[in-house]
Write a structure and sequence with these properties.
The chain is of the alpha/beta class and 371 residues long. The two termini are 30 Å apart. It has helices at residues 26-43, 91-94, 97-108, 120-125, 141-147, 172-185, 187-196, 213-217, 222-233, 241-247, 252-262, 267-285, 290-296, 302-313, 317-327, 345-350, 364-370, and strands spanning 7-9, 14-20, 48-54, 60-61, 67-68, 72-73, 82-86, 112-116, 133-135, 152-154, 158-161, 164-167, 361-363. Helix 1 links the parallel strand 2 and strand 3. Residues 1-9, 324-344 and 367-371 have low confidence and may be disordered. The strands form 4 sheets. A 7-stranded mixed beta sheet has the order 6-3-2-7-8-12-11, with helices on both faces. A two-stranded parallel ribbon has the order 1-13. Strands 4-5 form a two-stranded antiparallel sheet. It has 17 helices and 13 strands. It folds into 2 domains: 7-202 and 357-364, Rossmann fold (3-Layer(aba) Sandwich); 220-327, Orthogonal Bundle (Arc Repressor Mutant, subunit A), CATH 1.10.10.60. This is Transcriptional regulator GlxA family with amidase domain.
Length: 371
Amino acid sequence: MSSSSSVSVGTATRSVGFLLLDQFTLISLASAVEPLRMANQLSGRELYRWHTFSPGGEPVWASDGMPITPDASWNNPLVADTVIVCGGVGIQSVITREHITWLQALARQSRRLGAVCTGSWALAKAGLLDGYECSVHWEFLAAMQEAFPRVSMSASLFTLDRNRFTSSGGTAPMDMMLHLIGRDHGRELSAAISEMFVYERIRNEQDHQRVPLKHVLGTHQPKLQEIVALMEANLEEPIDLDKLAEYVDLSRRQLERLFQKYLHCTPSRYYLRLRLIRARQLLKQTSLSIIELAYVCGFVSTPHFSKCYREYFGVPPSDERSGAEMSQKPATLTTVQQPSTRPVTTLEQARNESTFASVRMIDRSDLAQSC
């Protein structure tokens, strides 16, 4: 962590509340909270406060059987300007009318609302994702598409859409929070947090969950699942569509109808998407050259690969790689004057850490006054 650059920051401390639903997944909560803690530690400032809530302040059981005692009930004045719903197992059965009413009241107050894991279901149930794009754990993608037709479901790891932000489960909330922190306080800080958590790469909204096709199609269409499996196993040397149809005893016309009906695209388009996603993974995770990437992902030439990549992802592969390298750039080691206000307990605990205040924060208001 050695960089001479610094990070601009506003003066306001953001307050984030986490609504814990019964059987929430603990890893998703931790993945969302820990980046906030580390942002405070590395900056040496109280950039974020966070609290946990339940309807009456009573303990909530996580899906792993651990009871968590929230900081307060949701009627407590601690309620934050940003509220994130933490869902988990059996989400449909744990949401009550009181949950929905409370979330709708927050929306009327123009609060920012988010969700992790299956918490998106609660926001959708309250009608707060109508007209928004939304991410959820892949197990619930199909169910939410059917239950909430006004919500635009995405297989992305997380989605930031205006004042709504939703994330799938596991460690994906960390990526979402790192992007929000980067938006608030700059890329250097989010990159430094990533380094502290030994997090190899900050994934973005274009990164998709690995959704098993059987969870999209259910137990139906085994031939379509077989064809997709063949595609995934043959990315370097793509199989001709006529051959694919022949392998599963279908005509090419029947094959095209299956893809249009269940995957909403042509077989060739789906195959191209698989190859481009694989290329993106290799681009960000290996040192293969663009020429090598084009070859191992089944493209006849580098210009053709670059053209397809840019059309699909919106950036050429060379820019994608340079952007990934920038996101991993180390952050500042300089120190700053300590804030005059009394730090919260987590900041007090962090003072003895060698990384405390290792990212220098520059107040934008000070810059404005000096101009």
